[in-house]
């Protein structure tokens, strides 16, 4: 059976959880993406924006969704497209989880998934769509 | 005096108006994976994580002129694999800046796009990048 044939609409991919996301991780992410916006590691900046803590970078959550899809594919397909809408904040110290669910399967191997980040309160803070092409080889 | 939209556009051009050439280095890919607490053992014959591209073409200067900013949304389309050793040229441009009413007064949504081209002239990815700014 090919990987494509094992898939079903509604099926969830393995969750990828990280946390607690520490300040060190937020600063490491600043270095990784070469963007040192102070909001993510200086609570005075966060307080001036009326936030209760320093927020985890949206791009960190976006990259985590990408890693969740990559782990699930495990070389059995390629990521063609990934979007993220940053709807809510997750703060330093929080545990966040990237999740995904198959929403559409096409015969040519194109598979669409809804993907999202779940915060400690269980709410979706970031939502997106992933499109992958999976292997039809048995 | 420039309007808020003119100022935001000028900021964007100052930060991203010039095409940036970036080498895909093993160390940067490793740092990307370590920052995500992911196993970090990038190999030259395996494509780098697709989202690694979002770390390219960014800059630390100049800082935005004033106000606050958050990412509103990102969308990448991956067209060809990227490997350690590749050289990627990143070109960004503003598509439009829209004024909106938000909880903190006027907010400005910058809609931009980016193109990522490798050393062979192959377009490896394109992106739509939306940012929200306020504080004028």
Quick one: how many beta strands of chain B? 5
The CATH architecture term of chain B is Roll
Number of strands of chain A: 5
Structural class by secondary-structure content of chain A: alpha+beta
- The main sheet of chain B orders its strands as 1-3-4-5-2
User: What is the CATH homology-level superfamily of chain B?
Assistant: Hotdog Thioesterase
- What spatial order of strands do you see in the largest sheet of chain A? 1-3-4-5-2
Low-confidence spans of chain B: none
Distance N to C terminus of chain B: 13 Å
Topology-level CATH name of chain A: Thiol Ester Dehydrase, Chain A
Indicate the structural class of chain B.
alpha+beta
List keywords for this structure.
heterodimer, A: 138 residues, alpha+beta, Thiol Ester Dehydrase, Chain A, 3 helices, 5 strands, 24% helix, B: 136 residues, 5-stranded antiparallel β-sheet
Describe, in plain words, how this protein is organized in 3D:
The complex is a heterodimer of chains A (138) and B (136). By secondary structure, chain A is α+β, with helices and mostly antiparallel strands. Chain A has three helices and five strands; from the N terminus they run βαααββββ. In chain A, β3 and β4 form a beta hairpin. The termini of chain A are close together. Chain B is α+β, with helices and mostly antiparallel strands and 136 residues long. Chain B has a single domain, classed as Roll (Thiol Ester Dehydrase, Chain A). Chain B starts with a helix and ends with a strand. Classes of the chains: A alpha+beta (138), B alpha+beta (136). At the A-B interface, α1, α3 and β2 of A face α2 and β2 of B.
